Amino acid sequence: MTLQGKVAIVTGGSRGIGKEIALTLVRAGAAVAINYHREAGAAEEVLKKIEEEKGKGLLVQADVTVLAECEKMVRTTLDHFGRIDILVNNAGIRRDTLLALMKEDDWDIVLDTNLKGMFNCCKAVLKPLLKQKSGGRIINISSIAGLVGNSGQTNYAAAKGGVIAFTKSLAKELGKRAITVNAIAPGFIETEMTEDLPAAVKEKVLSHVALERYGKPEEVAEVVLFLAQGAGYLTGTVLSIDGGLSL
Amino acid sequence: MDLEIFDKVKTMISEQLDVEEERIDRKTTFEDIDADSLDVVELVMALEEEFNLEIADEEVEKIKTIGDIVSYIEKAIS
């Protein structure tokens, strides 16, 4: 129970990778505030599971695209758990289409959620983290698309590439306070977000994965745990969890 | 009143940034005492708590000297 006494916020924690991250951190002993936006039912399920396992969880509804809602989310977490040590910026959406067909709204909503959402949450958590004077961990979920690009994902790739540049800059700002900031770039992970992709696309992707299989959300979560519970000399890096897809 | 606020700020700076109080007067810049912008942000957070006020981010960016902070607090409190 290496995260005993630590408190984490996981955004977009009701489903997919975020859900697995939340469960993994709870099992390591952390108290976890699970943020969700619209999926109240799914979030309840996660909390139920946590409570069955006698872990400490809390649901916090917030739209990460709105700074005031992120600030409220952090206040609620502090009121409930008394401190904050770890922020996992995981909330994200896709609106894939070729740029030729992409609507302005597809661009805005993806950038607002995946990039500005991370800014909002970091901003909201920063002062409480500094006040505690006990360091901290910020872990941002990027994507392989943010490293190597992807056809049909100009919006998503731009946001995820932005996450990486943001991560490096914030790591430089906060290093002297022992707050580490790192990014994780998952490849093709089996979640609801990827299951609706056309079979032909999935086949093609798989042919480039060195490990010849898709990743599991748990395999991303265990790297988040690694960053959350130690890795004190690791900051400003991007860890690719992609089975070799980016090679 | 003036002196009280200045003394309080001086003590807090001295403690938080590990600087001898003798090195601090109103004209002292944060550069003089080797404080960087993150130090200033943290100091402002502590002052906000101590004096129970809120200093806007735009104001924090303008702060150059200890006197700037003291004047701001004096104005805000009066």
Describe the structure.
The complex is a heterodimer of chains A (247) and B (78). With 247 residues, chain A is of the alpha/beta class. Chain A has nine helices and seven strands; from the N terminus they run βαβαβαβαβααβαααβ. Chain A has a seven-stranded parallel beta sheet, sandwiched between helices. In chain A, helix 1 (16-27) packs parallel to helix 2 and helix 3 (67-81) runs parallel beside helix 4 (104-132). The longest helix of chain A is centred in the middle third of the chain and has 29 residues, at 104-132. The relative contact order of chain A is 0.15. Chain B is an all-alpha fold and 78 residues long. The model of chain B has no long low-confidence stretch (mean pLDDT 88). Chain A binds chain B through residues 127, 130-131, 173-174, 176-177, and chain B through 38, 41-42, 45.
Largest sheet of chain B: none
Instruction: Name the helicity range of chain B.
Output: 55-70%
Instruction: Indicate the structural class of chain A.
Output: alpha/beta
Distance between the termini of chain B: 10 Å
The averaged pLDDT of chain A comes out at 95
Mean pLDDT of chain B: 88
Q: What is the number of helical segments of chain B per DSSP (H or I, 4+ residues)? A: 4
Low-confidence stretches of chain A: none
Strand order of the largest sheet of chain A: 3-2-1-4-5-6-7
Rg of chain A, Å, rounded: 17 Å
Secondary structure tally: strands of chain B: 0
Tell me the Rg of chain B in angstroms.
11 Å
